[in-house]
Amino acid sequence: MTQNDQRYMALALSLGRRGQGNCWPNPAVGCVLVREGRIVGRGWTQPGGRPHAERVALDQAGEAARGATAYVTLEPCAHHGQTPPCAEGLINAGVARVVVAIEDTDPRVAGLGFTMLRTAGIEVEVGVLGDEASRDLAGFLRRAETGRPWVTLKLASSFDGRIATASGHSQWITGPEARRMVHAMRASHDAVMVGGGTARADDPSLTVRDMGVTHQPVRVVMSRRLDLPMMSQLARTAKEVPLWLCHGADADVALIEAWEGIGAKLLPCATQGPQLDMSAVLQTLSAEGLTRVFCEGGGGVAASLLAADLVDELVGFTAGLSIGAEGLPAIGAQGLSRLEETNRFKLIEARPIGGDVLHRWERR
Q: Binding positions for substrate (predicted)?
C-alpha cells in the first residue's frame, strides 16, 4: 500500500459519503479511476442505488479506463441483478489493477468479485483504509450481518440531561449551529425516527431544511395504537415526504385506513408488554430496505433502544444551561440497579459546536 493508494482511496471514501441516505438498500460506495497519475473517472452510488459507483466512474473514463487502477470502497459486486456485475464491468473496461477497502459480506458477493477479477488477470489489493470504509458502510454491513439497520441515537439536552421543562417547553435548548448539524446528520441517514410521544408533544416535521438537499429521509414514527394527531405537520406532508408508521396489531383499523388514505405507509410490528418491541421494529425497517436510522427520541424510545443494546452510535449535543430535576429526562427509566447492567460506549469525538458541545460515542 503506497501513499498514493491511501490518497486515492480517501477520495473514493469522500465520494461514497455523497450517497449516504439516498441509495438504500444499496451501499454508498465511491470509486476513483487513475491512469498514469491522472484521475480519469470518479463515481458514487446514485440515488435509489443505481447506477453503481464503478459504472459511473467507468462511463466517465471511457477508453481512458484501459490500463487504469480502480479504487473502490467496497468489493465490486459479482451477481447479476437489475444491472450487470461491476466486477464484469471493470474486466471489460480493461482495468489493470483494483484496490479495495473492504470485502462485501453480502453472500451474493463475499469474495466472488475478487475471484472474478483475479481470474481475469487483474491485480487486486484489499484493505486500504479498511477501518474508515467499515465505518462509512456500517449500515449496509449491519443490515447484511444482523438483519437490522445501524442506529444512531441523537440527544440534545441541557447540562443536567433534560430535553424540556416540566411543562414540555423545549425550543430551543441548543443553538442554531447544533441544529444545523442535526439536519446534516439527518441527510446522511435513510430515516429519521421518533416515538409517538415526541410526535404528539413537538409536532415535528422531521425533514432536512436549509441544506440544499434534493432528497428527504423517510420519517418513521412508532405508535402502538396510532394515537397521533391527524392535523399534524407529519400528516399534512405525508404525500410529499415518506412517512412510515410502526404500530401494534391492536391499532384501530379505522386509524390504519385513515393514515393510509393520506399517504402514510403502515408497518405492523410485534409488541413487548405495553410497548412496541424495538428489535422487531428495526427488523421490520430493515426488511423495507433501510440501512441507517437516525433516532431523535423521546426519552422512552431512547431508554428502550439502550436497554435492548440496539444503539450503535450515541450523538449528544449538550447546552450550557440547567433545567432541574423536574425537567423531562433525555433518557427514560431503564430499571438498572448496578452499573454493570448497562453498556459503556467509547468516545470517538468531542468538540464545541457554536455555544454547545458535540460528543459522539460508539458501542465498544
A: 170, 186, 206, 209, 296
